[in-house]
Write a structure and sequence with these properties.
The complex is a heterodimer of chains A (188) and B (431).
Chain A (H helix, E strand, L loop, with lengths): L3 E8 L6 H4 L12 H9 L29 E6 L11 H9 L3 E4 L4 H10 L3 E4 L4 H4 L5 E5 L4 E4 L4 E4 L7 H6 L2 H7 L7
Parallel strand pairs in A: 1-2, 2-3, 3-4
Antiparallel strand pairs in A: 1-5, 5-6, 6-7
Chain B lengths: L4 H9 L10 E5 L2 E4 L4 H12 L11 E3 L10 H17 L16 H7 L8 E4 L13 E4 L2 H10 L1 E5 L2 E8 L8 H12 L7 E6 L1 H4 L3 H9 L8 E3 L4 H8 L19 E6 L6 E3 L7 E3 H4 L6 E5 H4 L2 H11 L7 E5 L3 H9 L1 E2 L2 E2 H8 L2 E2 L23 E4 L15 E4 L2 H10 L10
Parallel strand pairs in B: 2-3, 2-4, 4-5, 7-8, 7-10, 8-9, 13-14, 13-18, 14-17, 18-19
Antiparallel strand pairs in B: 1-6, 11-12, 15-16
Helix pairs in contact in B: 2-5, 6-8, 12-14, 12-15
The chains are: A alpha/beta (188), B alpha/beta (431).
């Protein structure tokens, strides 16, 4: 796995539910056909009300018109990120858009599990209200080994909560890779 | 060591005498549930990881209930049904309920109960967040994603972190104007949408055990709206008679030990509670109906796994009998069985169906329909700046379709009373 994740921040508020991450009308596309997979990138975060997207300013598009890929690599959010439905299409859509890590104050359980077990994006928790101090577009650097996130724009470093129990699944790249590694299922 | 009911069920599924709160354990799964939105990608992952010719761990334990995007012209949605059909055939899944056949059931969480899949003491995982509904039967039920479901398909097992429990006790006798929906919205207002994250929500008390199974399911259904891993009510004689009428399978009833440890405990007297709504745009944005009475609405929606069961329609019919609705009112029975019951269940000499038709409601075919918006041709989908009063479970921005619409979550009594006046209305005005 990558030990350094660097890229631009996209900042959101609290209780970002899975309907905002990928609205239900888009759940019909295939998650394996490459031509349809890109549509998940195109519509990632398209359910967020415009004024609440790209804080603190708001009205900043996560995906530019006509694109399927985002300029932002790290999502910064408040508490209860990914609440609502169980759709794995949500972390999948963020991954297709190019998101590698999410840093939120807390997560809803199913979204968190999906991120970890599906190996989509690393769901970091932090005790700090980073969505109050980091601005959309700031250049960030996450150090996976030291559990820190540095804002290269403001030159301030913050602590991330260690991933704990799930680190070994994240490190392996998901539940299948982990289960094979631990001989919980036959090798591929 | 003392355990809660949730710990005891997970202990059994882990082949252990005791599991401690916070530890991650591997569980043997009794039933895996999936539907048309998450089934196809789950089957893809299963084949990718276990091989194109792999067989599921136990075809009798996989239940496939298409329900989300059924009555739509959307071709991608149709393709998903085809993929379910194909997988069920090649795997020999006897519990597949095909669209367009007389086996079609409707909304999975309600159909699971009707078809006898809910058994006290068992473990159910489903690719839908409202899988927690089944906890009304004294069992463990929780939602998962496609990857976890694919892992279960191949192995029959999944890891889970044993949750702490929060106990909610409701004392007193339920007044006629109060419903399970009001109780869960009350709780949501108190503990907020992440108040039970990674925790079990356990319900007990005289008022709970007086409720029919359908009402208990409304409570456990919305445990996920507080972030709960599961909602649970110990099985009693009402639960047992419901189960025995639908299944011959063995089951085991568990109760929390009197000295079991809880994260926290809440106690309510139902005689002190009143009808409430969750205002836009969050299920915890509680207000008494009286405090927002008069707010204009453009639609009333009575349906879904939360509010589309027979008991929900009986309540709505009590209010709508002999009245006319003044806004578009969608009646969406959760299942084919509920739809049939609308014709055979009578209130005050009239069938529920007749009462709704006379009142000017439109009755839709059973599915999840507009609860989650759905494809653009979905019945009841909100448009533009709609203001909807709805018996469904979520009102985050855009949930029922339009990003600009506002949704008030309410009981079927409140949704029916408001449909008549075109404004949010306390059902006591009509009872």
């Amino acid at each position: 796995m990558e030990t350094i994740i660097q890229g631009k921040a996209y900042v959101l508020g609290k209780n970002i539910d899975t309907d905002q991450i990928i609205p239900a009308e888009h759940l019909v596309y295939s998650l394996s056909d490459p031509e349809e997979v890109v549509l998940y990138g195109k519509y990632a975060l398209s359910g967020v009300p415009p004024e609440q997207g790209g804080l603190p300013e708001g009205n900043i598009l996560f995906i530019d018109e006509g694109s399927c890929h985002s300029n932002y690599t790290i999502i910064i959010a408040g508490p209860n990120f990914g609440c609502g439905s169980s759709r794995e299409h949500a972390p999948f859509a963020l991954k297709v858009a190019g998101v590698k890590a999410i840093v939120a104050e807390s997560y809803a359980r199913i979204f968190y599990r999906n991120c970890v077990d599906g190996g989509f994006a690393i769901p970091y928790e932090t005790a700090e209200q980073l969505n109050q101090v980091i601005k959309t577009g700031d250049e960030l650097k996450i150090d996976v080994e030291s559990n820190t996130i540095e804002n290269l724009t403001s030159k301030i470093t913050y602590k991330l909560n260690p991933l704990g129990d799930v680190f070994k699944i994240v490190e392996a790249g998901g539940i299948f890779a982990y289960a094979r590694q631990e001989n919980l299922m036959p090798q591929a | 060591m003392a355990q809660t009911i949730t710990q005891k069920i997970l202990s059994k599924a882990a082949n252990r005498k005791f599991v401690d709160v916070g530890e991650s354990v591997w569980l043997n799964v009794d039933i895996l549930l999936t539907h048309d939105v998450c089934g196809p990608p789950t089957f893809d992952i299963f084949k990718q990881e276990f091989g194109a010719d792999a067989k599921v761990w136990d075809p009798k334990k996989v239940v496939v209930l298409p329900d989300h995007y059924i009555f739509t012209a959307n071709e991608h949605a149709h393709r998903n049904i085809d993929l379910l059909r194909q997988f069920a055939k090649e795997q020999g899944l006897e519990h597949y309920y095909d669209v367009g056949s007389d086996r079609y059931k409707g909304v999975c969480h309600v159909a699971l109960a009707e078809e006898g899949f809910n058994l006290p003491g068992t473990v159910l995982f489903g690719t839908d967040s409202h899988t927690c509904t089944s906890g009304a039967f004294g069992m463990f039920g929780t939602g998962i994603g496609n990857t976890d479901a694919a892992f279960i398909l191949g192995t029959g097992k999944l890891w889970e972190k044993v949750p702490e429990s929060i106990l909610f006790t409701f004392d007193g006798k339920m007044p006629a104007y109060l419903t399970a929906k009001d109780l869960i919205l009350q709780i949501l207002g108190d503990i907020t949408t992440d108040g039970a994250t990674y925790r079990a929500m356990e319900f007990d008390g005289e008022a709970i055990f007086s409720l029919p199974m359908e009402e208990r399911m409304t409570l456990t259904n919305m445990a996920i709206e507080a972030g709960g891993m599961n909602g649970i009510i110990a099985a009693d004689t009402i639960a047992e008679s419901y189960v025995k009428a639908r299944s011959q399978k063995p089951y085991e009833i568990f109760h929390s030990d009197p000295d079991a440890r809880y994260h926290s405990k809440y106690r309510y007297n139902v005689s002190e509670l009143e009808p409430v709504v969750a205002q836009p745009h969050s299920p915890d944005n509680r207000a008494t109906v009286r405090s927002v009475q008069g707010t204009k609405i453009t639609k009333s929606y009575i349906g879904s796994c939360t509010g589309g069961k027979l008991t929900d329609f009986v309540m709505a019919a009590k209010i709508l009998k002999g009245q006319k609705v003044s806004v578009t009112t969608n009646i969406v029975p959760a299942t084919v069985k509920v739809a049939r019951d609308l014709e055979t269940e009578f209130y005050d000499g009239q069938s529920l169906k007749q009462i709704f038709e006379d009142a000017g409601c439109s009755i839709a075919l059973p599915s999840c329909a507009a609860c989650l918006g759905g494809p653009s041709d979905t019945v009841g989908r909100s448009v533009d700046n709609d203001v909807v009063v709805s018996t469904t479970n979520r009102n985050f921005p855009g949930r029922m379709g339009s990003k600009h619409a506002g949704v008030y979550l309410a009981s079927p009594l409140t949704a029916a009373a408001s449909a008549i006046t075109g404004k949010l209305t306390d059902p006591r005005d009509f009872l």
